[in-house]
Amino acid sequence: MATSGSLICVKDLKKHYKGGAIKALDGVTVDINKGDVMVVIGPSGSGKSTFLRSLNLLEEPTGGSILFDGEDITKKRYKNADGKTVKLDVDALRQKMGMVFQHFNLFPHMTILENMTLAPIKVKKMPKAEAEKKALALLDRVGLKDRADAYPIQLSGGQKQRVAIVRALAMEPEVMLFDEPTSALDPEMVGEVLDVMKELAKEGMTMVCVTHEMGFAREVGNRVLFMADGQLVEEGTPEQIFGNPQSPRLKDFLAKVL
Amino acid sequence: MDSFVKMENFATVAKYSSLFAQGLLVTVLLSIFTVMIGFCIALVMALMRLSDIRPFRFLGIGPDGYQRESGALAVISRFNPVSFIATAYVEVLRSTPVIVQLFIIYYGVFGIFDLPNFTMFGFIKFPRFFPGVVALGMNSGAYLCEIIRSGIQSIDGGQTEAARSLGMSKVQNLRYIVLPQALKNILPAIANEFVVIIKESAITYTIGVQDIMSAVNAVRGAAFVITEPLLVATGIYFCLCFPTSKLIAYFERRMSHGDKR
Ligand SMILES: Nc1ncnc2c1ncn2[C@@H]1O[C@H](COP(=O)(O)OP(=O)(O)OP(=O)(O)O)[C@@H](O)[C@H]1O
Ligand SMILES: [Mg+2]
């Protein structure tokens, strides 16, 4: 069913509020392929977060469809490969999509290690020892193994966000969604988080990143989406978007941020 | 003119000191059980109030496919019967006197069938103690419900989003993420409710629970003195409640320090 190679096919996606008076998303169509590092840029209020959050159904779209691995996840019930009608398992779906938030959203009442092992143990039913071993290996990769027993409040913003990223990775997702992961950080901490994301991209992780870090978009992204007023205005490679912008809105936006 | 209190009357009261000691134990046990029952009721009621069960949701979709913003159908579509029941429970119990509730439970509900007639510790009469705990527990459940509800609502929505995005179900999110944080925040409020119940439990003497107040009554009936036993009861209640409140305030301060670290 799926277009060959596409992990996620978004078609005419809409999210309207107040009887259509507010169109946070107004017909977005895009395919996300395996291994893509897709960077979403656009002015404030253009619907970037809404787009990202729709992908793992933290927002329920009001129109259009999202095919993930060929299944339409916007339908509460759908026909599976055998032609049987089954109920969509939103929890199972979300396990395949890691999400990283602007404000980290670590669980403050748990240690870093507990933050990382809770979902693998409770959701994936992984044995505790195995989950902890995995978590420590992941923490080691982001240089935070020695902070495993600390509480989130004892970490800096950059450290918190690195933990948030590996917490999502501990569920072994197929795609990672980032919503402005560096916007709440002090400038000197932005680099350490972007480095982790770059590393991840190099390993071939499929990523969708909403960010204001144009340098990151240029260097790491293989596709850039420019959104405005809930619509996908322009899409292309970083070279096309930054080097040869077409629409006046994009030119205007780039003039402001670069 | 008679003086307000007479020393020799205190000597009379002293003869009944074992009654006061038993009363103290009854009051404390009654309050502990009440808070436990009240907490369980409150937790269920709070979750009911926060539930999202709307059987007529479909009526809220207009012909244009959008959610209706106003009108009778929009109101009906938002109706949540589960939440309504919990809200009704809370409002009724908070808007009627405790003594009325106590009498309804004791004479009305437990009047129609017999409770096992045994005594605990040799002096706590279960058929009176139990209805007292149920009535007070139901009443404090209504107040605790609002405390728990606000505790749950005070947890940042980002916590739930993070939990759900990791694939946790609604129940897992509640159990592992939201409730532990909410309960920690409202622990002082729950402890305060305990102090309130210690004081409020005094009315259970009206259904024959042998608490501190009933010791006062017993002395009055036997020795025809009232002011002095009342002052003794005042002292006991104060010694029970005042240090508890201070202790709670102390831990509350310490906990808020911890959060600012
Ligand atoms: N619950 C809501 N009710 C009404 N309007 C909403 C709601 N949520 C979002 N919107 C509107 O939808 C539009 C898109 O919001 P969104 O958060 O997706 O923008 P964004 O591109 O992420 O902006 P930012 O860069 O500021 O994060 C905004 O105009 C916003 O006001
Ligand atoms: Mg946003």
Could you provide a short overview of the structure?
The complex is a heterodimer of chains A (258) and B (261). Chain A is α/β, with parallel strands linked by helices.
Description of the structure:
The complex is a heterodimer of chains A (258) and B (261). Chain A is α/β, with parallel strands linked by helices. Chain A contains nine helices and twelve strands. In chain A, the strands form three sheets. Chain A has a six-stranded mixed sheet with strand order 8-9-10-3-11-12, sandwiched between helices. In chain A, strands 2-1-4-5 form a four-stranded antiparallel sheet, covered by helices on one side. Chain A has a two-stranded antiparallel ribbon with strand order 6-7. In chain A, strand 1 and strand 2 (22-33) form a beta hairpin. The longest helix of chain A has 16 residues, at 187-202. By secondary structure, chain B is mainly α. Chain B has a single domain (7-50, 73-259), classed as MetI-like (MetI-like fold). Chain B is 72% helix and 2% strand. Chain B contains ten helices and two strands. Chain B has helices spanning 7-14, 17-49, 72-77, 81-94, 98-109, 126-153, 157-165, 170-200, 212-223, 227-260; strands at residues 119-120, 124-125. Chain B has a two-stranded antiparallel sheet. In chain B, strand 1 (119-120) and strand 2 form a beta hairpin. In chain B, helix 8 runs antiparallel to helix 10 (227-260). The longest helix of chain B has 34 residues, at 227-260. Classes of the chains: A alpha/beta (258), B mainly alpha (261). At the A-B interface, helix 2, strand 8, helix 3 and helix 5 of A face helix 7 and helix 8 of B. The structure holds adenosine-5'-triphosphate and magnesium ion (MG). Adenosine-5'-triphosphate binds at residues 17, 22, 24, 42, 44-50 of chain A.
